[in-house]
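Case 185 in the screening queue. Each case pairs one protein sequence with one candidate compound; here the compound is 2-oxoglutaric acid. For every case the pipeline is the same: read the inputs, emit a complex structure as C-alpha cells, and attach any notable structural observations.

Predict complex for case 185.
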Amino acid sequence: NGFWVGPVEMKLEDYFRYSDQAREERPLYLFDPKFAEKVPKLGLEYEVPVYFQEDLFSVLGHERPDYRWIIIGLAGSGSSFHIDPNSTSAWDAVIKGSKKWVLFPPDLIPPGVHPSPDGAEVACPVSIIEWFMNFYITTKTWKKKPIECICKAGEVIFVPNGWWHLVINLEESIAITQNYASRSK
Ligand SMILES: O=C(O)CCC(=O)C(=O)O
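Case 185 output:
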C-alpha cells in the first residue's frame, strides 16, 4: 500500500527514488486523499487551524467527498490553474519547502485559461512553467492584479471559494491541504 501519485499508487521510498533523479517539466506529484486512513499517525499529528474548523461537509460523515490531502513534490511540480469543487474553500499548510501561489478572484479569469461555460472543466493548454514564461507578464498591465505570495514551511494560506489558483513548488515540498465549507465565505 502506497500513496497516490496521479493514477498510480507508489511506495514512499519509490516516490523519493523517482524524485531524486526526475528532471521533467511536469514532475509526478504525490497527492493522496487517504493519507490519514493509511497512516493514522499522520492524521493525528496536525490540528485544523482554528479559523477553518467549521466544516459543513462533516454532516455527510463517511459519505463526504475527498477533502484532505498530503501533497509531496519536487521543485517545479505543482497545480495548474483551477477552482476547487463544490464551492469549497481551502487551507494549505507547508510543512517542508516552499510554494509560490498566484490567485485570481472569481471574476478574473487567468490568461491562458479557458473554462467551459458552466465552469466545470478547465482547459489549461500550457504547463505551469510555460504559464510563467508566456502569460504571467500580461497580468502586469492589468488594473486588477492577481494576489501572489510564497508560503514557506510553517505557513498556511487560505484559498477562498471560487478563486482561481496556481501553485508551483520552488523546492522539494511537503504540504497538507483541506477543503471545507463554512457559513462565512
Ligand atoms: O499544489 C498545491 O499545493 C495546491 C493544491 C491545490 O490547489 C488544491 O488541492 O486544490
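Case 185 observations:
- The chain has a mean pLDDT of 93.
- The longest helix spans residues 12-21.
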